[in-house]
Amino acid sequence: MYKILIVDDEQKIREVLAEYADFEGFCSDQAQDGMEAVLKCKQNDYDIILMDVMMPKLDGFSAVKEIKKIKDIPVIMLSARGEEYDKLFGFEIGVDDYVVKPFSPKEVMARINAVLKRNAPSSANKNTNPSIKYDGLEIDMLGRNVYVDGQKAELTPKEYELLFYMVNNKGIALSREKLLSDVWGYDFYGDDRTVDTHIKMLRSNLKDYRRFIVTLRGMGYKFEV
Amino acid sequence: MYKILIVDDEQKIREVLAEYADFEGFCSDQAQDGMEAVLKCKQNDYDIILMDVMMPKLDGFSAVKEIKKIKDIPVIMLSARGEEYDKLFGFEIGVDDYVVKPFSPKEVMARINAVLKRNAPSSANKNTNPSIKYDGLEIDMLGRNVYVDGQKAELTPKEYELLFYMVNNKGIALSREKLLSDVWGYDFYGDDRTVDTHIKMLRSNLKDYRRFIVTLRGMGYKFEV
DNA sequence: CAGCGATGTGAAAACTTAGTGAAATGGTGT
DNA sequence: ACACCATTTCACTAAGTTTTCACATCGCTG
User: Fold this and answer.
1) Strand D close to B144 by CB, under 7 A
2) pLDDT category of residue B122 using cuts at 50, 70 and 90
3) How far is B163 from chain A (nearest CA, A)?
4) Edge-to-edge strand ranges of the sheet holding A151-152
5) Which positions on chain D have an atom < 7 Å from some protein CB?
6) What is the pLDDT of residue B44?
7) Range name among A53-67, B108-122, B162-176 with the lowest pLDDT average
């Protein structure tokens, strides 16, 4: 599934585009300005970006420049009529397409598909490893990434290991002792309440999906969908 | 064993497919429309879905989109002749194969097997634990789950342990002393009527299936089907 | 069919456990 | 040595569980 970042300072526009994108089966994320867009690109891997030109804090072109320094992600610019000059400039810095406002969301979607198809043969899924998905919780063990509603969750090493172990043993009751010996190692001689603390932190990072980690009172924990 | 969800508004079609699926050794479930299909997917884990396109309430494509948001399950669409346009659209949203009505059930089964083999490398049965079933009482020791008529029973730790112990020794008379030393531990120095209280609570949680826990007057208890 | 010991049951008391925030510890790179 | 972060320990609390006990009920036996 393609991940798309929508950058525009007008909430209304972001909402409409996001809705259409969802309908097309994309997973969409939003940013209000160039600054936020750059930040989000650092944290997450998107397959394509829809970027407005005129925005506070950091304009679209500067944002694209910043982003291209880090990652090579296709970009479609959304510009107001009469910014023809910018058009040329845009292609120079690696913009893939242009849509002039006011646009029809349908047209934007068509262009997204076109750009993705163009860059696709190799690049689709270049960013993503085989990942498991439970509702809005995406787990990519190979890439050691966890996404909560499309947002990358920053877990500590132990949190990753604990989560991966539990997912690999999903539906199975795991005692603290078992977790300690399999995740921490047989040579860990410590308090078994350590597990609780890590579970606490893991849960807080999983936000809504903390519900997948169920407590088995008097026993331990398990991961269950 | 693979679990398959058959979605079609025509009962006749569902029945025929279910019968063939059973014959192939699949475990099948049915939904009448897209809405029901989405709901069932939220609640259960299927290995593959057979989805009709034209249905009341929620059409097949929309249903697939919804489902793909939550879980990545392979889908085979069942469409009437002349919906070729949909075909293209369908592959876009992640449909694995198409069968055009009228179809032969055999062909559908062949395609199911093909899709499963393609996506399979290990996914069958990953979702479910081995569980024992006595009438409407289902016991999943690995996952520490007990279901009474499909409803999850919330047992306390001792209740689980007591039940699991008794089930593991089903048909065998168990004295209070034996239960205390094996379930509570050799170091329990307490009233042996404690067992009675736990039996009482366990029974009340097992509802109708309390009958499996039989009292052996002057002796103890046993689990018997 | 009365009496008696054994079991069923409800409720209160005694006890355990898990969630949590904060502090102590340990490890890494600058 | 320092700051920074991850990890572990710990103490406290709220919630849940276990045990005990008293009384009701049952079923056998004389």
Assistant:
1) no
2) very low
3) 15
4) A132-134, A137-140, A145-148, A151-152
5) 5-11, 16-22, 27-28
6) 74
7) B108-122
Better pLDDT: B28 or B163: B163
Give the model's pLDDT for residue A153.
92
Domain limits for position B194: 132-223
Mark which of B119, B146, B162 sits at the end of a domain: B119
Whether residues A92 and A17 share a domain: the answer is yes
Per the CB < 8 Å rule, is B127 touching A172? no
Alpha helices in chain A (DSSP H): 11-23, 34-43, 60-70, 84-92, 105-123, 157-168, 176-179, 193-206
For residue range A38-85, list pLDDT tens digits in order. 888 877 778 899 988 888 888 888 888 888 877 788 888 887 655 554
Phi, psi torsion values for A93, nearest 5 degrees: -90, 10
For B42, the token pair is 């939220």
CATH number of the domain residue A206 falls in: 1.10.10.10
Let me know whether A7 and A116 are in one domain.
yes
Q: Is the pLDDT of residue B36 over 70?
A: yes
- Report the run of H or E that residue B80 belongs to, with start and end: strand B75-80
* pLDDT band with cut points at 50, 70 and 90 for residue B124: very low
Q: CB of residue B202 closer than 7 A to nucleic acid strand C?
A: no
* Separation CA B222–CA B58 (nearest Å): 50
- Residue B70 has its nearest CB partner, among A135, A173, A219, at A135
Report residue A176's pLDDT band, with 50, 70 and 90 as the boundaries: very high
Probe site for chain A from B39, B66, B72 (most A CB atoms < 10 A): B72
Which chain B residues are within 8 Å of A217, Cβ to Cβ?
156-157
pTM for the model = 0.59
CB A116 within 8 A of CB A152: no
Q: What is the pLDDT of residue A46?
A: 86
Q: Are A92 and A196 in the same domain?
A: no
Give the nucleotide at minimum CA-to-C1' distance from A215: C18
Q: Are residues A114 and A143 in the same domain?
A: no
Best mutation target, A22, A166, A216, to test chain B (most B CBs within 10 A): A216
Q: Is A4's pLDDT higher than 80?
A: yes
Instruction: Give the domain-ending residue among A123, A147, A171.
Output: A123
- SS3 at position A30: strand
What are B's interface residues with A at a Cβ cutoff of 8 A? 45, 65, 68, 70-72, 92-94, 127-129, 142-144, 156-158, 160
